[in-house]
């Protein structure tokens, strides 16, 4: 790619920007548009190194009347969202979902050829793909600031760009598409971009289901069709009909960790919504199949099923349609609190799959393979992936809530205080009760409301088919007893349904002890009898980085995975690692392909679970073409990591990382935990205090409403620093680590060797490079100048910016580059294009924060809304760092 943005991307940014300008002019006049252009021009001058450019911009913004502040923030926010649409459109068109260096785009066909060249037979490739178990877990973590109604308009705008590009020979089509584009941009401009109320967990689940309906429902069969064509060329056979290399799970409505709004009743409602939506989508499929499968030739098995009728396929589909309609009616009645008195419903995947498979086999048996492998195969693929619930719903709860339930139970039964018992005593009690055939919980047990809610959740599990549910995740897990406690409660209340139980290790100490905990757990015969030879473990990225700093956390995550792989190998258990990656780099985000290939050898063995959070769901799965490419990327990465794993790190590299992590951790803690000025500085210089008013998600911003930074969730912690462009959580400590090593003889050579030969370290540096390029210490300085007036806090800010500068120099030295992002021009140009639109939002945000503080939080509704719009716009402009 040339140094400039691709011509089609630049053209689309211009088309959208011009249309937005006309829309604003229609409402507010050409004079207002001129003011916007003046602001943009000043921002551009400031970016071009003119000494007083940024000062002139700030002076101009501070001189705006209050009545202009909201429309100005809205204009720049809207442009940034339109720029994202143009970039998303470009990525879909040119198959660039993720940010890679030139030539590093993963292509599945090339990977299959390379695997064969490395000695893997065609049969091995098919078997590996058929047995692959990759689950993408959709979560509603509160970083998606854009309302769903606007997302729908943005998707329609993308369709208009496609129509305009394909209308070269049909100018009247182009004119119609341009007219529709103007209409949609006007609709978006006249729609409030900020929710007035927080979404409920059910709202979040509906948003997740909408992504499936609008995008994945089409992308999944398209993906399998492309994969089948590749395998037919490579191995001469298709993927087995029931194979689903990629499936989808969800936390929306199931994640109750720190979210009092997720109750057993909410979980039950979300499960019913999934059943209703699935039935509705399959109903549309079956109606289409009934139209298309008008053939009369059928095998004896199908004729025996439906009798001697003229159109056997339609007869079978008509019966299946009746059951699907009944299922939809049943789910609606349950949601409405009504009794259902209709016909039999579909409760399991096989009840839907078997009749369709009978049609498929019949068509193949009578020589109609082409028809069998058309829309019927697409529906079979959907059933294999989505089942009858669309996603598997995971459940997550904090370990302390299970501990509280058992404390109340043991005390109530006169058995003592569970909380006071040693780990050995707890294990002995839990294992005895797991083996016992008598019930432990009294029928009329009076317990606290918190414990009753825990038990009600397990009753929901008991009332569901196992295939509707995914994994039960225990956050803050620390000991084998935390897993055994869930197993016991599930046995006592959960009936015959036994879900996989995954402890979540998220703090630095937890990660360091993860291997030992799982070793002791798998050594318990009573647990193995229950869990069998599979073990799932979740690795937390957000909280470990907040706890220890990004570099120390990344190395601890790597070492924990290595230990878990070895422990499970010794115990003969199949390990599935569940990666709790956030959307942002500071929470483990970044390109999925690079991230998966940078994991330890053996940790991705055809099996992987990973969270897709908040706004990244829309960026990666919100449109069919983008979703198709994202699915290919995951498949490529897991296949490559399984068949062509990365090299084992050299012992010298491990020693190097141990030392780097230790230095980085010490530096990070020295600032965040030990510097008495840090918390006041954080509260003064970032919009953290105002974040609570932004209705970002159903979960509170803090685990506890009292306390300091340690109680703040990782997401608003990252979000707050991103707004000021200092991006501190993702780099603090790394500069000291690299500087120490670079000052020593041979240090640069070792770091460059690790960068070039070790995917883990290379990927870490790539993410750091992108983050440094999006950070801006000049903007961070402005926030400080406007919002901080204590000399001690100003001195801390100066020290932090000095640390950033040393890291910037060190990274360029290791990469042997003159400037950041030299080898990824698309990202660099995308940042440069957006900066003149983000810079005014930063200036306005700092001004509005100060006015809000001066007014003790009592600024007008319009100014308060303008402040929230600046947050949304900055997040939109910075994408995977926002």
UniProtKB/TrEMBL annotation:
Enzyme type, top EC level: lyase
Cofactor(s) this protein requires: Mg(2+)
Molecular function GO labels: magnesium ion binding; phosphoenolpyruvate carboxylase activity
Active-site positions on this chain: 141, 546
Role noted for this protein: Forms oxaloacetate, a four-carbon dicarboxylic acid source for the tricarboxylic acid cycle.
Oligomer status and interactors: Homotetramer.
Protein name per Swiss-Prot or TrEMBL: Phosphoenolpyruvate carboxylase
Species annotation: Halomonas stenophila
Gene (UniProt): ppc
């Amino acid at each position: 790619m040339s140094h400039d943005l691709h011509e089609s991307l630049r053209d689309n940014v211009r088309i959208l920007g011009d249309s937005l300008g006309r829309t604003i002019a229609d409402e507010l006049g050409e004079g207002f548009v001129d003011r916007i252009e003046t602001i943009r021009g000043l921002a551009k001058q400031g970016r071009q190194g003119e000494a007083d450019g940024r000062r002139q911009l700030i002076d101009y913004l501070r001189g705006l009347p209050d009545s202009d502040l909201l429309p100005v923030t809205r204009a720049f926010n809207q442009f940034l969202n339109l720029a994202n649409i143009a970039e998303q459109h470009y990525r879909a068109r040119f198959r660039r979902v993720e940010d890679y260096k030139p030539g590093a785009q993963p292509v599945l066909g090339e990977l299959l050829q390379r695997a064969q060249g490395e000695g893997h037979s065609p049969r091995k490739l098919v078997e590996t793909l058929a047995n692959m178990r990759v689950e993408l877990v959709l979560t509603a973590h509160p970083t998606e600031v854009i309302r769903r109604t606007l997302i729908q308009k943005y998707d329609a705008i993308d369709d208009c760009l496609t129509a305009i590009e394909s209308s070269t020979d049909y100018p009247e089509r182009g004119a119609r598409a341009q007219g529709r584009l103007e209409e949609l941009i006007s609709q978006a401009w006249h729609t409030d971009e900020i929710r007035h109320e927080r979404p409920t967990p059910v709202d979040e689940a509906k948003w997740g289901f909408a992504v499936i309906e609008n995008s994945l429902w089409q992308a999944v069969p398209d993906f399998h069709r492309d994969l089948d064509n590749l395998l037919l060329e490579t191995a001469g056979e298709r993927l087995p009909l029931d194979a689903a290399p990629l499936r989808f799970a969800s936390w929306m409505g199931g994640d109750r960790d720190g979210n009092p709004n997720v109750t057993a009743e909410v979980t039950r409602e979300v499960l019913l919504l999934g059943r209703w939506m699935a039935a509705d989508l399959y109903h549309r499929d079956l109606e289409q199949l009934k139209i298309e499968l008008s053939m009369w030739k059928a095998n004896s098995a199908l004729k025996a099923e439906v009798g001697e009728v003229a159109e056997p396929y339609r007869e079978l589909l008509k019966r299946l349609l009746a059951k699907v309609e009944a299922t939809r009616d049943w789910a609606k009645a349950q949601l409405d609190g009504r009794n259902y008195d209709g016909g039999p419903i579909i409760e399991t995947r096989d009840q839907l799959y078997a009749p369709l498979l009978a049609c498929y086999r019949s068509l193949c048996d009578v020589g109609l393979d082409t028809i069998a492998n058309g829309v019927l195969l697409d529906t079979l693929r959907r059933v294999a992936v989505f089942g009858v619930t669309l996603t598997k719903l995971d459940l997550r709860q904090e370990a302390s809530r299970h501990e509280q339930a058992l404390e109340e139970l043991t005390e109530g039964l006169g058995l003592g205080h569970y909380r006071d018992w040693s780990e050995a005593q707890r294990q002995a009690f839990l294992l005895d009760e797991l083996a016992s055939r008598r019930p432990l919980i009294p029928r009329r047990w009076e317990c606290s409301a918190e414990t009753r809610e825990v038990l009600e959740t397990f009753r929901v599990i008991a009332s569901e088919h196992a295939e509707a549910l995914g994994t039960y995740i225990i956050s803050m897990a620390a000991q084998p007893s935390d897993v055994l406690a869930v197993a016991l409660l599930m046995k006592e209340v959960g009936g015959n349904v036994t879900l996989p139980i995954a402890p979540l290790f998220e703090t630095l100490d937890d990660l360091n002890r993860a291997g030992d905990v799982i070793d002791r757990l798998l050594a318990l015969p009573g647990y193995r009898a229950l869990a069998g030879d599979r073990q799932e473990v979740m690795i937390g990225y957000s909280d470990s980085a907040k706890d220890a700093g990004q570099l120390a956390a990344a190395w601890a995550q790597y070492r924990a995975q290595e230990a878990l792989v070895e422990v499970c190998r010794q115990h003969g258990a199949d390990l599935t690692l569940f990666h709790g990656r956030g959307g942002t780099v500071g929470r483990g985000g970044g390109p999925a392909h690079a991230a998966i290939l940078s994991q330890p050898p053996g940790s991705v063995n055809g099996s992987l679970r990973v969270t897709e959070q908040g706004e990244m769901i829309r960026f990666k799965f919100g449109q069919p073409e983008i979703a198709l490419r994202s699915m290919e990327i995951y498949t490529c990465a897991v296949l490559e990591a399984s068949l062509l794993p990365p090299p084992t790190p050299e012992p010298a590299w491990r020693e190097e990382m141990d030392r780097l992590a230790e230095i980085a951790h010490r530096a990070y803690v020295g600032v965040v935990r030990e510097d008495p000025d840090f918390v006041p500085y954080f509260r003064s210089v970032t919009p953290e205090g105002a974040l609570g008013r932004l209705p970002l998600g159903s979960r509170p911003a803090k685990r506890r409403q009292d306390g300091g930074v340690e109680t703040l969730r990782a997401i608003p912690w990252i979000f707050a620093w991103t707004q000021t462009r200092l991006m501190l959580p993702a780099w603090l400590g790394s500069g000291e680590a690299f500087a120490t090593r670079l000052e020593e003889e041979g240090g640069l050579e070792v770091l460059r060797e690790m960068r070039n030969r070790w995917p883990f370290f290379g990927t870490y540096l790539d993410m750091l490079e992108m983050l440094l390029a999006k950070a801006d210490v000049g903007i961070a300085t402005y926030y400080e100048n406007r919002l901080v007036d204590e000399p001690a806090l100003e001195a801390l800010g100066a020290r932090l910016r000095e640390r950033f500068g040393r890291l910037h120099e060190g990274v360029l030295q290791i990469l042997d580059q003159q400037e950041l992002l030299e080898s990824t021009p698309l990202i660099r140009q995308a940042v440069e294009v957006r900066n003149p639109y983000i810079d005014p939002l930063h200036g306005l945000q700092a001004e509005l924060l100060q006015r809000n503080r001066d007014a003790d939080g009592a600024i007008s509704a319009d100014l308060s809304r303008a402040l929230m719009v600046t947050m949304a716009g900055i997040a939109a402009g910075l994408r995977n760092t926002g």
